[in-house]
Structure formats: structure tokens, C-alpha cells
Amino acid sequence: MTTELTAIEKKHQKSTMGRQGGGDAVYGIGIFGAWAYYLSHATTFQEGVLGFLKGFVWPAVLVYELLKFLNKETE
Q1: What is the number of domains present in the chain?
Q2: Is 8 domain-assigned?
Q3: From its phi and psi, is residue 21 left (phi > 0), alpha (psi between -120 and 50) or beta?
Q4: What predicted TM-score, i.e. pTM, was given to this entire model?
Q5: Domain of 26?
Q6: Residue 19 — very low, low, confident or very high, per pLDDT cuts 50/70/90?
Q7: Residue 3 domain-assigned?
Q8: Is residue 52 part of a domain?
């Protein structure tokens, strides 16, 4: 059983090739940067584990703080 793509599907497939994963790379670099920061400042094993976990959630904290700051500007 073969499935053939329609002309529209082929055009869409060509237009999206090579433009995927850019955000993943930036997020990955950010995680490594956050780990370098948090782990270099950790003085105990527990702080190191906490820093490792913080590295995963830094974008959420960053966006939260940015929106909180922007909301303060509009009030």
C-alpha cells in the first residue's frame, strides 16, 4: 500500500524542511548555561541537585517574571 502526497502536501513539506528545531537549540544552550551558573554556585550536594532541577524550569520562571514586570509597567 503506497500513499502519495498531493501537490499541496508536497509544497508544504518543501517549505517546512530545514526550519525545525531552532528553538530547541536555544533552549538547550539555555539549560547548559543555567546548569553552569547554578552548579558553580552550589556549595552542598543538595544545592547542586536543586540547581540541576532549576536548569529545566528557568524559561518558565523567566517568562513569569517578565510578565509580572510588564504588568507592573501598565498599572
Answers
A1: 1
A2: no
A3: left
A4: 0.56
A5: 21-74
A6: low
A7: no
A8: yes
- At residue 58, the pLDDT reads 84
- For the chain, how long is the longest CA-to-CA vector? 62
Of residues 29 and 5, more confidently modeled: 29
Report whether pLDDT(64) > 60.
yes
Please state, as a whole number, how many other Cβ atoms lie within 10 Å of the Cβ of residue 61. Answer: 11
pLDDT class of 46 with cuts at 50, 70, 90 = very high
Task: Determine, yes or no, domain membership for 47.
Answer: yes
- Give the C-alpha separation, 7 to 41, whole Å: 55
C-alpha cell at 20: 525545525
Evaluate whether 32 touches 52 at the Cβ level (below 8 Å): no
